[in-house]
Amino acid sequence: MRAVVQRVLSSSVTVDENVVGNVQKGLMVLLGVTHDDDIKDVEYMVEKIVNLRIFEDENDKMNLSLLDIKGELLVVSQFTLYGDCRKGRRPNFTEAAKPDKAIPLYEEFINKAKEHGIKVEKGQFGAHMAVDIVNDGPVTILLDSKKNF
Questions:
Q1: Which residues lie in coiled coils (predicted)?
Q2: Mean pLDDT in each 10-residue stretch from start to end of the chain (149 residues)?
Q3: Count of structural domains, the chain
Q4: Domain extent at residue 101
């Protein structure tokens, strides 16, 4: 499982001119699922993301987590995080999980995040989405549940 985590002042996702997810201060997460991901990957990623200390404390040091600041979380499915561009000019997406595998893990990620008592919004899996992000910092973190980076 891979994620691009962005610290945001606000973020929203729109499908067919309808806002389907909207958050204020917190994190916007682009989430990709691969073939061998399972519940352990979900649990690792949720715990890592909600506890990442990437918000400033009173001394302007990145020392607070999403939970500490009572921030909000927007999660958007992003199969292109598994695009392989090493050969040729067109990305190869064979490492991205098919929807029958990816959707349950994406939904489980959202459910596990909600268990932390934070506001969690989401995009619409498989839809063409317009994502609006006001990145705060900017702060952008890459995560991989297999710890490839």
A1: none
A2: 98 98 98 98 98 98 98 98 96 97 98 98 97 98 95
A3: 1
A4: 2-144
